[in-house]
Each structure stands twice: as structure tokens, then as C-alpha cells.
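User: My advisor asked me to double-check a structure prediction for Fatty acid hydroxylase domain-containing protein 2 before group meeting. I don't want to rely on an old file, so could you generate it fresh from this sequence?
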Amino acid sequence: MPFREKGIFSPGHTDPNFWLPRAWPQPVSSSVTRSPRPTSHPRSDNRLSWKHRSPAAGRRLRPDRRSGEARKLHTAEMKGDAGTVLCPEKSKQEGHIWGSMRKTAFILGSGLLLSVAFWNSVTWHLQRFWGASGYFWQAQWERLLWKFEEKEWILFIIGAALVPGLLFWAFNGLLLVVDMTGRPTFISRYRIQLGKNEPVDSVKLRQSIRTVLFNQYMISFPMVVFLYPFLKWWGDPCRRELPTFHWFLLELAIFTLIEEVLFYYSHRLLHRPAFYKQIHKKHHEWTAPIGVISLYAHPVEHVASNMLPATVGPLVMGAHLSSITVWFSLALIITSISHCGYHLPFLPSPEFHDYHHLKFNQCYGVLGVLDHLHGTDSVFKQTKAYERHVLLLGFTPLSESIPDSPKKME
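Assistant: Sure, here is a fresh prediction for Fatty acid hydroxylase domain-containing protein 2 from the sequence you gave:
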């Protein structure tokens, strides 16, 4: 029986004329694997054997092995349409551009997803920690409310006035020891204006401390007392529930922005000739400031530039007493650091406000945002002090790593 009738290919499979048009037999079911039947047959006028075909012609019979551009090029050649033939150089450039765009999109998308996942993880852990510790603080707060029942105003004065005041004097007391004695000596290495206040003038210091005490307890204290009824009417500062972690952060951000705006414009107004000589000149008696003179000012300046920028935020937000206590304490500590005269490691840089005391007409704000917008820090940005206006993360003083030029030292 011939091989073809048994359903398997005959040795003619290797015959060069095997692919010529002929009557194909009906396939017979068999378990033997057969080669696939060609989907099209060459025309009768193009009967060439495999031996006479060029390698390129042989590749044309296997279009599945060509790239997409090669298939387009072959189709255009077969059709004879020269206008549709693609330029290989242009195609390679377009492929490279699209490949780069896909890689960029993949990298950016992956980075965005990782950032979102990291941020969600961090906030989840912070919220979990806050929630766990929040039960403890909530219990302590309710215990205080029970002790000061129907006398919440006393609790408000303790939290809004006495606690921030004690922290102010505890921090500045340590700085005064260094200013008066020059010890420990390693702290003196971080002095910003070298050769100034070594040691500090004791007569001038006593006079300044009296003014600071007057401003604190004859102006700030009454203002805090009168602040309570307004907060009580707007939103009870001694309400039973403590603020959530996210709301507390939002309040601090709003307090900071309000203080920046009010302090910048009131401070700059006080530098007008009409107000400077009568009011603000008192504060600028210290061209090389120390921490305690942060509240050394004329009473009008103390109300306009020190108290109002700090109290408007809590009043607008109807803040809880816990937020007010933290905010007032932070405000006093930060303004003390800005005036301390030392660029200490791991603390905010005081170079910005120290330069204001040195030159008077630069750096009016707290954060420096409005100074940048109004150009009132342009001279400061050209100095070595601006280069040193960074968070010191080591123990080498910036006055040594970024020293002033010899001309300025003279």
C-alpha cells in the first residue's frame, strides 16, 4: 500500500517539486504527527525548485519569522507601491522613542505606587501609635477635667500661660548660664557672631530681663485670660474629647501660616521710620541677640508682633487647650532659638533672624517665605550666613566649615 494512502507523508516530502500544485488527498486520521499543510500555493508560472530559490526568497515563505517592519516592507514590495515603503532609519528612531517613553512611564508609575504605599504605611503606623497612646492621654485629660470641674478657666490659664512660660525660662536659663560664664566651652564654639557677648553685659541683661518679665506677666498673661471667653464662645477649649492626630497637625500648619503673615507685615511696618525710632528700636538694641531678649520689646510691639500673630490662629480654629499649650510652647522655644546667638547641632538654624539683628533691613519673617516673595532677603542670600542657614547634623561648627571671608572678618 502506498505511504500516501496510509495517511503519512511519502519520501516525496523532500522532493523539490513536492510543493507544486497537485491534487491533495483527503487527510486520514492518524496518530502520526504530520507537518502542516501550506495555506497557499505558488502560481503555476513560478515553478522554482528549492535549489534555484535565493535565501531571501526562502525567507519570504516563512513570514512568521520576520519582524513587523519587514512584513510591511515585503508587502509594499509585492504590491509595487514604492510610496508605502518604510524608511528603516526612521522606524528605528520611532521605536526607540516609544520604548523610552514606555520605560519612563513604567518607572514613574512604579515610583508613584511605591510612594503612595509607603505614605499609607507611615500614616497607618503613626495613627496606630497615636490611637494607642491617645487612650492614655484621654484618660489623663478626663481626670484633669474632673479635678477642675466648673473651674475650667484655671485649667486654661495653667495650660496656655504657665506651662509655656515655665518652658521658656527653663530653656533660656540654660542659655544664660553659657552667656554669663562661657561654659561649657564647647557650646561657645557654635556662636554665630564671634567675639560678641563674651561675656554678656550684665547691666544690660538685667534691664532686659525686667522688660521681658513685664511683657510676660503684665501683657501676655492678661491677654491669655481675656482670650478664654472668646474661645469658650467659639468652641470650648476644655471640651472632653482631645483632637485627633491629623487635626492636630492641620492646626499647627494653619497656626504657622497665620503667624508668618501677621508677623512679617507687622514687623516690616515697625521698621518704617515713623515707628522704628519710637517702638522697634528698643528690640534692636541687641545687634548680637541672646535667647531671653526674644521678648524684649516695646509694649506696643509685644502686642502687635509677638502676641497677636500667635493667638489669632487658635482663635480662628477654635482650638483645644492641648493644641494651644503645644503651640504656645513651640512658639516661645523657636523664637528663643532664633535669638539665642548659637547655631547648635540638630536645632533650627538661627542664622536668618540673627542676620536681621545685624543688618536691620533684611529677613523680616519667621519662615522666610514672604521675604523670598518680596525680595527682602536678597542681600542675605549673597552672604556666607545664607550658606550656613541649614540644619546642622554634625558637631563641627558651621563657622569653621563655612567661615567668613577675611574681609568680613576684619
